[in-house]
Amino acid sequence: MKKFFSILGGMGTLATENFVHQLNSKTKAQRDQDYLNYVLFNHAEIPDRTDYILDQTKESPLEYLLEDIAQQELLQPQFMVLACNTAHYFYDDLQAATTIPLLHMPRETVKELKRQQKKGKVAILATQGTIHSEVYEKELLTNGFQVYLPTPDLQENINNLIYRDVKRNGFLNTELYKLILKEVQAAGCQAAILGCTELSLLYAEVKTHPYLVIDAQSVLVDRTIERANSYQEKTDLNENKQQYVYSRQE
What we know:
Blueprint: E1 5-9, H1 13-26, E2 38-42, H2 49-54, H3 62-75, E3 80-82, H4 91-96, H5 105-116, E4 121-125, H6 128-133, H7 135-142, E5 146-148, H8 152-168, H9 174-186, E6 191-194, H10 197-205, E7 213-215, H11 216-249
Parallel strand pairs: 1-2, 1-3, 4-5, 4-6, 6-7
């Protein structure tokens, strides 16, 4: 393959599977050759990101992630996708390790929120590691939003939804998900960001509710497709120009 991107996943595997499913579902294709070219790294052994962020005596995921970046760079993709919100804690170190562009999921998510909602209070629903890293909080504040961080009781419900229900048991607890959304609306939030790819599974499952919810994984899928198509269009344009030059010379 010459024109492709790479996906760094496995954090967790079910969430990565959902990312790829969305990617393929949203791609406009009528035949096999219309789908996007990509390489998937499902590195399931990467240590838990939240565990390290909250307690840095534990094993760091960074060495694993840097190894993956180095392996992907050997393949020379046009760009890379990091399909885990919490892993963006390490984004600067990862991007500094390669000249290949690495999409920034929190940044793209807040851009999409701003397109739909110009201002207001926004709840961040994510792992404690993502909350502690402030990767979403910084982007929201920079773009003029107020930030609502979950109360301890609400965060416990979010943790249970992510770790107990989805990661451990593969259970999409839609009732708890709806309860969480209802609580942030009651707290005066105009929107909520799903900053965890396990929560993205609930977003795909619960289609109708009265809340403005921006799913980070869905945004990343859209930006990935746009970026891949833009590279393809540039390549096609350059090839057409080259063919025109050859025909003129003849």
